[in-house]
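It would be a great kindness if you could assist me with a short task in structural biology. The full record is reproduced below for your convenience:
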Amino acid sequence: MPLEIPPQLHHIYPPNTAEGFSFPQQNLCALGKRGALSCSENTSIFTLAIRVLRRTVAAEVRKQISGQYGGSPQLLKNLNIGGSVSHHTTVPLTEAVEPVDLEEYLVTHPIALESGPLRDLLEFPPDDIEVVYTPRECRTLVSAVPEESEMDPHVRDCVRSYTEDWAIVNRKYHKLGTGFNPNTLDKQKERQKGLPKQIFESDEAPDGNSYQDEQDDLKRRSMSIDDTPRGSWACSIFDLKNSLPDALLPNLLDRTPNEEIDHHNEDQRKSSRHKELFALHPAPDEEEPIERLSVPEVPKEHFGQRLLVKCLSLKFEIEIEPIFASLALYDVKEKKKISENFYFDLNSEQMKGMLRPHVPPAAISTLARSAIFSITYPSQDVFLVIKLEKVLQQGDIGECAEPYMIFKESDAAKNKEKLEKLKCQAEQFCQRLGKYRMPFAWTAIHLMNIVSSAGSLERDSTEVEVGTGERKGSWSERRNSSIVGRRSLERTTSGDEACNLTSFRPATLTVTNFFKQEGDRLSDEDLYKFLADMRRPSSVLRRLRPITAQLKIDISPAPENPHYCLTPELLQVKLYPDSRVRPTREILEFPARDVYVPNTTYRNLLYVYPQSLNFANRQGSARNITVKVQFMYGEDPSNAMPVIFGKSSCPEFSKEAYTAVVYHNRSPDFHEEIKIKLPATLTDHHHLLFTFYHVSCQQKQNTPLETPVGYTWIPMLQNGRLKTGQFCLPVSLEKPPQAYSVLSPEVPLPGMKWVDNHKGVFNVEVVAVSSLHTQDPYLDKFFALVHALDEHMFPVRIGDMRIMENNLENELKSSISALNSSQLEPVVRFLHLLLDKLILLVVRPPVIAGQIVNLGQASFEAMASIINRLHKNLDGNQDQHGRNSLLASYIYYVFRLPNTYPNSPSPGPGGLGGSVHYATMARSAVRPASLNLNRSRSLSNSNPDISGTPTSPDDEVRSIIGSKATDRSCNRMSSHTETSSFLQTLTGRLPTKKLFHEELALQWVVCSGSVREAALQQAWFFFELMVKSMVHHLYFADKLDAPRKNRFPERFMDDVTALVSTIAGDIVSRFQKDTEMVERLNTSLAFFLNDLLSIMDRGFVFGLIKTCYKQVSSKMYSLTNPSNLASLRLDFLRIICSHEHYVTLNLPCSLLTPPASPSPSVSSATSQSSGFSTNVQDQKIANMFELSVPFRQQHYLAGLVLTELAVILDPDAEGLFGLHKKVINMVHNLLSSHDSDPRYADPQVKARVAMLYLPLIGVIMETVPQLYDFTESHNQRGRPSCVAVDDYESEGGSMISQTVAMAIAGTSVPQLTRPSSFLLASSSGRQHSTFSTESSRSLLICLLWVLKNADESVLQKWFTDLSVLQLNRLLDLLYLCVSCFEYKGKKVFERMNSLTFKKSKDMRAKLEEAILGSIGARQEMVRRSRGQLERSPSGSAFGSQENLRWRKDMTHWRQNTEKLDKSHKPARSRAEIEHEALIDGNLATEANLIILDTLEIVVQTVSVTESKESILGGVLKVLLHSMACNQSALYLQHCFATQRALVSKFPELLFEEETEQCADLCLRLLRHCSSSISTIRSHASASLYLLMRQNFEIGNNFARVKMQVTMSLSSLVGTSQNFNEEFLRRSLKTILTYAEEDLELRETTFPDQVQDLVFNLHMILSDTVKMKEHQEDPEMLIDLMYRIAKGYQNSPDLRLTWLQNMAGKHSERSNHAESAQCLVHSAALVAEYLSMLEDRKYLPVGCVTFQNISSNVLEESAVSDDVVSPDEEGICSGKYFTEAGLVGLLEQAAASFSMAGMYEAVNEVYKVLIPIHEANRDAKKLSTIHGKLQEAFSKIVHQSTGWEFLLVEFFPPLPFLFPLPLPFLFFLFYTVEPPISFYQRAMPTAGPPLMSQGK
């Protein structure tokens, strides 16, 4: 089949239908030209074209193949969630749809909105992107620049590079993108300030003893059974009447229209709501968000850890002469001096006076006594070495030091004469030899001992010494590849706390011992041996006799910004209020190992270290030798330059420096450091001149003080490069001849005499610390060639070569490729300049020998290899995306569009003609000649908005042409245009320039092989360069306001398309092989597209996104486990969607219209309240809620996000389970970011934003079966204040379990479980993996956010379209939300140890992710080790969510031997727990209020439909469930209001349809009536009262509510642990009060019925509570049970259960007669209801039938108006209310009577039973009965004696007196014989028996 050409390459290869594609020769040449390839290269064009083609076509081919193959069915499934069929062509969710052309759409659909927050949603703000020129911060008062006015080009470039402003492209609103979502930062805490405290009963309930005492007291007061008459009814009523009601709700009893009530409720609910839901919801537990790109650090001068050393005093035993001191740091292990010398002078004025003739007035800078040292690599091997010198005198060092060792200060009086003599000698030497020094003494301080014994600031004083044995490894063992930047210090130190110099206590040291210097052991090598020896316990030095003295110094961490500070160049550092104050010197560091930080300041210093001299073979007298060092700019002695820094108490600069003299030594060692300020521009004549003198110490006649004994020199430049390093120089005996300076002393000059036959006798080292001289041959050659081109000066001399113009091209190319060989350290130091030059060569190909040389490719390759070197070698210096921070800083601050013309046109013919040496390969002549930035002029004025003085030709030109229109451009141009730019536009003579981004894109598209690989490895760098170049181009061409379609030429856009397409191809093809590289590439590409959305045609960028999507999709079809690729795509999408204008990009104000229809009118677009009557509009609504094609097209990015969510959460999607958390977090992050975005604070705007997520509701509804079941966890968590589900017994009326029997029998309250659809789901769908709690919670909070913010009218219209099934599913979701966001309670927070809990949860999640493959564990670890560690927890900007896991060195629970920090013992402070509870309480309240709002919308929607019953039942279920949970008082008020409105609108719902929910509601209301919070009680009582009232109004009584309330009370009192009857009594009183005040029903029976019910409830309440008290008193217990049963007169089921309970209790104690009477009453009760239910002749007529057994049985008769008819659902439903149940009860009763010996009663019972069995013809049962009767009658016959018989004779009714205790009966029997009727009256009315005391 012919291959198809992708459209993006049509401009190169037009499709040819016949052959598939063709390669016309001219097109290949075009490509050759565009690639600026020479003709010879055109041969390889074909292969290149094939390669480009192959990459781009791959996706298409794959797609066609997969199309034929069909792909995996579940991925093609279209999840059309809304239910209505879309009439658009459907595109499966796994395919990307064609995006909307955004620019076109905005033009064709103007929306006529006034300005305002909604208007701002429509378009990006005009100031979205700004190019800012920020003056770089200068540390010093005067910036460091060379003093010379004439500078060579290299110096000029360097200085410009160190001083020009930062060119920053600022995306002004970038911080509003999701990467900086304040909900994931510490800022969340700030945003939670001022939250109201929600009141929860569970928190209010007092705990422990106080509560118990109060309870007991209440009980004693209210119902002590002993203090009241037996009847207790009166007492109970008395108690109730005396209690206080709660406040009544105003207007509760008014007849208000339902609409008005709804409106009022809504106003109440919506007032003072918390605006931001996500501020209350903790962010999901994530790594640093992948979309966050932190702003790189500003490039600045490198400092290590800084140490302030103050020298306070130096005092010897004798004071006879001045002593001079210096300090420096040495690293013994590295054998390196790691700082320059600090010279200080602590001599008294008197001593200084001795040198007055020799010392000119001292500059204040040389009087410093304190210094700041910088240490980049602190280690245990660093010493502070102090060296002392004195004035030269006769005698060797030992002799001179002797007096200091002998004399003691205390003996001063005794040795007065000797001291005077010594003083005189010293004065003479000072007079004569004052300018010479000799070595005297030295000592060293082991720095780390001081730091560690001073103790860390945080450390306890006990931990003073840190032994070296404990160290975990020292600094010096670390690899030095990591850049030691400002941040990395903390990282490096963590291994060795003792080396931390930033936080120890300042220490004052007194050094008392100095070692005298030994003349033959002055070299550094000797010093290192001494220092190494000092660390040993048996040091040789300790055996030496010391010089005693007292040197006091202070050592402390340097303050952040010390005042009065001087840099090593003696510039004043900022905050230098007074120049007369003694300064502190900053001492330059010579780091022990390389430091990789680019130069940012001008520094040009030279250090000269004379080391040794060998004059052993020199004839003549030369013993006391000093070397004079001078820096010369010519050969005349007067040419010495005053550039040598002074030491202490002397002028700042001098022309010469002398080394110290070692007495009588012909081969002395030196330990001098001579510091020189190098001139910026060096010539061949600059050199160092060394003159050797013999100094005559004794004063002899005719002997000069100094005699020159030799000369040597070092030329500063060699072939144009600075000459540094170790030298061993020959010494000439004579003055050097003319023109010696350009030669080296190694050259044998004719006729010169040399010491020791021209052998090298003088060792000297020269070290440069310079930001001008690279000191690298490859870099030097490259810069030299580039500058030669700049200046157009040929031939160029480089090294020993002279390069002619014709050879320049090859040399330039080879020097570019040789950059790879240069040392990394200089490459990094000159990184900014190097990259600038390479970029310049790309943009401005030079003209060499009349030919244009295209260096684009070579430069591109060089850049790629340099950045890859940095990446590989400096791997510790990368962020989470693998971006090297040095390169990121370069792009962000330094890079700018290069000026296209040389800075200073060469003064050749034609004035500006110099420019002609640079040509261009412009692609088309019509490309606009863009204006460009002149760097050199921007120097003169740091603020781009202040125009410069008109000095250049272009000012005149501008005055002719006329200013640009806008001020902005005018100001911009004035300071950044190039002199020739306007001439160019006028004359067209000057060639146009290349644009860097165009050139870069082209080079990247055409590169191949290793170069392409290198570019891919660091794609982020080129992408970011390209973007910055594009922005600068738009800025200078004044196109930032231009329509986006016209901003960039088509050619460039084609290149970008090809580039993106091929890179997407790379990601797809290599994601399994190069995991880490592909991850980086993927994020780089995403950030690039994110950036392009800000500057390019957005429709075009959407197209690019679609290209990437298609390539990934087609690959995913063919994979068995697509999760890795899907994970990459999620990262890609998340980064793109983190754009700060994400909402605007989604066209939130567009209404979805079917493609054919005309565009909507403005009114319908703005007001959504218009009737959605037409089909089109119904479809529109459906489209808004479905992932329909129009939705995905118009809301392109939101469509992609929701599609990913739908596809990944789809239970049939194979292999994507591991991505659930990731995709849910993406949505959560977006919504939470919108929530906190100040631009969307307006509710109208938020509704528009929420509209983009309406399909989310449907997607989440689909996932109901997979969501974590929060309702289940409730059952495990004991909720003190709620009735847990387990507390209900499932069987309706069975004999109850003994545990609850004391309090409550079973109940017909329905079992509260998850709604039916959940149960269905759990049975059918359990093969679906369930989401984790965290993921489910995140999904549900997202759902609530959409429901909270979406336009209610739109929701309502959608609900209208939903089927009953779907609406019920939505209600199931809301039910789940209630459980999910239930308030945990303060006590739970206190119990949770958050750290351990969090840790285990994290580990589990990590493991899960690693196993499920959404991210490889290896990558995870790699990613962590790379860069993650440098974010120390404290320094992190995102502390609160900073994850601790895996990072053992930073965790609170470090598992090594460290002591745990005291502060972490309690996991969280009290305040934190309070805060957490406050947030959780507010979240629970807000979540439930949103659910309530939604329920209200549902009710409004369905109230007009036919299917309302099933839906309203679901609404009620959710409402009741929320009442059952732990809720705040605020929510409950609104909840009760909604419930009242619902019942008032649909009374039949409760009283006819959902009867079990009536029971449930009664239980909930009653529970809240017993709340400890009065407002809750007020509302609950009001609801309960209205419930009765409504029930009464339906049928003149409220039997149902009576019964359910009575049953609920029994349930409540029985199961609730912390139940308080006092509160319930108040509520009952409130209900009574309502009844009394209810004028409307005053004339009916209602008030009396309410009063009866309330009294009855109160009675039950009192008795049940008492029953708990009297567990141990059986008589009292049974009495109470009897009274409770009496209270349940209106609840047949409950009364029956309590009667059975009593029967059981009696049987246990063998009181069979009483037990039998209870059973008879039970049977009578059942018979009564059966006779109502079934009209069967053989059944007993009711309780009348039983009156022969006991007349009390009549009490069981049902009162018709008071008890509901038994055929209603839920009443008399127990198993006993059947014929079989009745038979069972009667048989039990007969058996009990038989056991009690009451055989007459047995007969009566069987009289009732026999007709039933006869009717059923149950012969077997009848035979058994007759057998039993026979036994009974036989017993009666035989029972002719005994008191029982007598008793029966005398008191026939005795068997029916069962309620009275037998002892009382005996008392009656023996005293009085009252009439029977009295007994019947005195008995409590309902006859279950009390306990008898035995026969």
Observations:
- The chain has a mean pLDDT of 77.
- The first strand starts at residue 15 and ends at 16.
- The longest helix spans residues 1470-1502.
